[in-house]
Specification:
Blueprint: H1 11-19, E1 26-30, H2 37-50, E2 58-62, H3 73-83, E3 90-95, H4 103-113, E4 116-122, H5 130-135, E5 140-144, H6 150-156, E6 160-165, E7 171-176, E8 182-184, H7 185-195, H8 201-204, H9 208-234, H10 242-254, H11 262-271, H12 286-298, E9 302-309, E10 314-324, H13 327-334, H14 341-355, E11 359-365, E12 368-375, E13 380-385, H15 392-404, E14 410-415, E15 423-424, E16 427-431, H16 432-437
Helix pairs in contact: 1-2, 3-4, 7-13, 11-12
Length: about 450
């Protein structure tokens, strides 16, 4: 029996799934644990039921469940085959499928032997890695899911935005909670900066104790299940030291938005005495650090952004930056702190650009740097992020790199305090929060 629980809307992702419904590719939803992938499958099932597909045509399996803990690829195939209704199209939903050894063989067989439409989720990029890709090359479409955007956060936590008259003339936007309390948008944004966008927080409420317990659970599962256990399953023994793994996670979380390399991580861990008995001689090799960082990228806890040389029109191999999938997780790891707000804001803007369908790089022009170059098939955007544009010095610093770019694409600076001027020689100055809630 399919559950009657009401799932909150994630239209951004649901509409993508619906767009690929009944097309040949396997739909693969990827993203960090607990960012809402299972709920998205439930929303899709609800959509199918609402549009006339019968319950018997839907097979739903969650491989985190104990029921399937020893299931093999053959067992999966036989189980689904037994449920298939002759002459009817089947809709197959497999949650956390990476837990079934050689699952791709079963999925490939379903594609050949059944009239079916297949939906999969996975909390690890290993799911789509080379071994798998050869099996389903060109026959799958990946939908990359992220924790809640600020707009989704407002929705999940029951805030409604209303325009009200402002004392200066014009209008301003106020947030009202379910009981009609009024909040400045900035207060709610501060809650987003503190608690982050994990959907589960909406179930426990904006309470620090309960939120930290939830984030602790997510963090442990990502690290233990998706990284340490998975390495065992793959028979690779590269990532065996949980202490080193945690130190690298803390390092990356503390250095979001800064240029880092595998060498610099290893050296810093030794120099700051973060590794027991660490000396230059037994510092982890760059190769080891790179393997650990790779595992963190595969489990979607961190994302790497490459640098692009605007004049030379090429990606640079050295020194990328890393951003963390969820700011709440960062606060859980490092404690709540008010410093490096600028990098936290950058982190939020980076993921918002990804949600809006852009490819994102860091721009280098001469010796200056532009926080983000965001491009898609139609357009390109140059974006700087800063806390405030109120001081002359900051304005000069933020505008200078953008002024060097000699093309006609949109250039903007996002900040919490954009000042009164809305543009400087064609470079727009926008309020970051307004930008986040704009369509």
């Amino acid at each position: 029996m399919l559950s009657s629980h009401v799932y909150k809307n994630r239209d951004l992702y649901l509409n993508k799934l619906i767009a690929f419904q009944d097309t040949e590719p396997v739909k693969v939803v990827t993203g960090i644990r607990r960012c809402g992938k299972s709920s998205l499958l439930k929303l899709m099932i609800q959509h199918l039921l609402n549009t006339g597909v019968s319950e018997e045509q839907i097979v739903e399996m969650n491989f985190e469940s104990h029921d399937y803990k020893d299931l093999t690829s053959d067992g999966l195939y036989n189980h689904v085959k037994a449920m298939a209704i002759p002459g009817k199209r089947m809709y197959l939903f497999f949650d956390e499928l990476q837990r079934v050894p050689r699952w791709e063989e079963a999925v490939n067989s379903f594609r050949v032997d059944l009239d079916c439409d297949i939906y999969i989720t996975g909390s690890n990029a290993y799911l789509l890695s080379s071994e798998y890709a050869t099996y389903l090359s060109g026959r799958c479409v990946e939908i990359k899911m992220l924790p809640l955007s600020f707009r989704e956060f407002l929705d999940f936590h029951g805030f409604e935005l209303r325009e009200t008259a402002s004392a200066l003339g014009g209008t301003r936007i106020i947030a009202f909670d379910a009981s009609g309390e009024r909040y400045e948008l900035r207060e709610v944004f501060d809650a987003y900066l503190r608690f982050g966008g994990m959907p589960g927080i909406a179930d426990v409420g904006l309470d620090q104790e309960r939120a930290l317990t939830l984030l602790d659970g997510i963090y442990s599962t990502v690290v233990v299940r998706d990284i340490l256990e998975r390495e065992k399953r793959r028979g690779q023994r590269q990532i065996t030291d949980p202490v080193l793994l945690r130190k690298i996670i803390l390092f990356l979380a503390g250095n979001i938005g800064s240029m880092v390399s595998a060498n610099s991580i290893g050296n810093t861990l030794v120099n700051e005495g973060l590794l027991e008995g660490g000396t230059r001689k037994n510092a982890p090799s760059a190769h080891t650090v790179q393997a650990y960082v790779g595992a963190l990228l595969e489990s979607y806890i961190f994302y790497e952004v490459k640098r692009f040389d605007i004049k030379g029109k090429e990606y640079l191999r050295t020194l990328g930056k890393y951003y963390i999938a969820d700011i709440g997780l960062r606060n859980y790891l490092l404690g709540f702190r008010d410093r490096d707000t600028r990098h936290v804001l950058e982190n939020i803007v980076y993921f918002e650009l990804l949600r809006r369908g852009y490819d994102v790089a860091i721009g280098k022009i001469d010796n200056a740097e532009i926080d983000f170059i965001a491009s898609n098939a139609e357009e390109k955007l140059y974006v700087q992020v800063t806390e405030s544009m109120s001081s002359e010095e900051v304005r000069r610093r933020e505008l200078a790199p953008l002024q060097k770019v000699r093309d006609n694409y949109e250039k903007m600076i996002l900040s919490l305090d954009p000042g009164l001027e809305t543009s400087f020689e064609g470079i727009k100055s926008k309020n970051l929060i307004d930008w986040l809630i704009s369509e």
